[in-house]
Amino acid sequence: MDLRIGCHVSTSGGVQKSPQRGAELGARCMQVFTRNQMSWNHKPLTDGEAAAFRTAVAKHRMGTVMSHDSYLVNLCSPDPDKHEKSVEGFCAEVERCTRLGIPLLNFHPGAHMGKGAAWGIQTIASTLNGVCERFPDSPVKLVLETVAGQGSTVGRTFAELRDILAGVHQPERFGICVDTAHVFAAGYDIATEAGWQKTWEEFDRVLGLGVLAAFHVNDSKVPLGSNVDRHALIGRGHIGPAAFIRLVTDPRTRHVPMFLETPAGNAGYAKEIAWLYAAAQGEPGDLPEIAEQKRGY
Ligand SMILES: [Zn+2]
Ligand SMILES: [Zn+2]
C-alpha cells in the first residue's frame, strides 16, 4: 500500500472544489468539513454537488477522504435537548458522507460535563448503537478520535476508547484516529524512541492495531501530559521531528492515512507533506521553513 499523506482541505466555494485543492498541495488523502463545523445550520447538499465531489475525488486520485464531524456534537451531553441535537447532527453527517462516498467519519467521542467518565462511555456507546440501527447498511466507518483530555472530554486513554467499543453492538463499523498532538498531551510519550515503542505496544494490547483507521499528524505546543489541545508545526513543538519520521516508517503505522491539522496554511501544508514523503524514503532533510498561520478549523 502506498503511503497516504495529506491534510485538512478547505471546502470554501463548495465541497466539490476540495479534491483539486488537495491535489495541488501534493496530498494523497484529505480531511474535510462537509458543512460549517461551528454551526448547527447548513445548506442541504444537492445531488449535483455530491456527484461533482465523487468525480473530483476520482479525477484527482485522492486516496482516502475523511470527514471531521462538527465540534458542536456531543454524543454524551447530559442535556436532553443538546443530546438530541447532537444525535440529529451526527446522523445528518453519516448521511452526507454516504452521499459523498466518504468512507471515514471522524468525531470526538464526547464530554460528560461532570457526570463521570464511566457514564460518558456508556452513553456514547448506547448513542452510537442507536445511530448504527438507523443506518444498518451505511458503508461509512465511524472513527473515534483520541482527545487531549481537556475538561470532561472522554477518549483521553486507549482504555476509555476500548470501553466505548466494548459497548457497541457492531464494533466492525468503528475505527480509531490517533491525533499525535492529542495523545502526547494526554500523556503518551511518543517523542522518545522508548515511549514510541511503549505507546504502540499498549495500543495493540488494549485496542488492537487492526482498529487504527487514521492519523491526525500534528506537533504539540504544550508538553507531555498537559491535557491541552494546541497543534504545532511538524517538528517544531514538544514532540519533535523524530516521532514523525517513525510514524511514516514504522510498519505498524505507515500504511494508515495521515491528515495534517497543523497551523501551516496551504503553502505550509505542501512543504510538510513533501517533508513527510521524503522522511518515508529515509531522506527527511531539514525541516521546512513555514510562517505559522491561524488555523481556520
Ligand atoms: Zn478533531
Ligand atoms: Zn485532530
Could you explain the architecture of this structure?
The protein is of the alpha/beta class. It has one domain: Divalent-metal-dependent TIM barrel enzymes (TIM Barrel). It contains nine helices and twelve strands. The chain has helices at residues 18-24, 47-59, 80-100, 117-134, 158-166, 180-185, 193-206, 241-249, 265-280; strands spanning 5-8, 29-32, 64-68, 104-107, 110-111, 141-145, 153-154, 174-179, 212-217, 219-220, 231-232, 258-260. Helix 2 links the parallel strand 2 and strand 3. Helix 4 crosses helix 5 and helix 8 (241-249) crosses helix 9. The model has no long low-confidence stretch (mean pLDDT 96). One zinc ion (ZN) binds at residues 68, 108, 145.
Structural class: alpha/beta
Q: Tell me the count of domains.
A: 1
**CATH topology, what is it called?**
TIM Barrel
CATH homologous superfamily identity = Divalent-metal-dependent TIM barrel enzymes
Order of adjacent strands in the largest pleated sheet:
1-2-3-4-6-8-9-12
Query: What Rg, in angstroms, do the CA atoms define?
Result: 18 Å
Cα end-to-end separation: 30 Å
**Helix coverage percent of residues?**
25-40%
Count of β-strands: 12
Order of helices and strands: EHEHEHEEHEEHEHHEEEHEH
Beta-strand residue fraction: 15-25%
